[in-house]
């Protein structure tokens, strides 16, 4: 396996990881911003007011997106295993 092949494999892996993680990260960032703004406007400084809704929203996103996440990862694994001869030989 040449260094170019290793670099290509790592590039593909990081691309897939970014695509799978992006929806959760975007929702968490937007929700954090909205909750922080709401907390600032109302002068409430309790940390559980931001933690509990954020955890709930992330759990819902993970549950709702699980079929897509699994399909995406299964497709990547299938392509990787099909091309395994090219990387080993």
Description of the structure:
With 89 residues, this protein is mostly helical. 90% of the residues lie in helices and 0% in strands. The chain is built from three helices and no strands.
Listing every helix as H and every strand as E from the N terminus to the C terminus, the arrangement reads HHH
Instruction: Assign a percent range to the helix content.
Output: over 70%
Number of strands: 0
Q: What does the overall shape look like? A: elongated
Number of helices: 3
Number of domains: 1
Taking all Cα atoms into account, the compactness measure Rg is 19 Å
- Give the end-to-end Cα distance, rounded to a whole number of Å: 7 Å
Largest sheet: none
Beta-strand proportion: under 5%
- Average pLDDT number: 90
Structural class comes to mainly alpha
Oligomer: single chain
Outline the low-pLDDT stretches. none
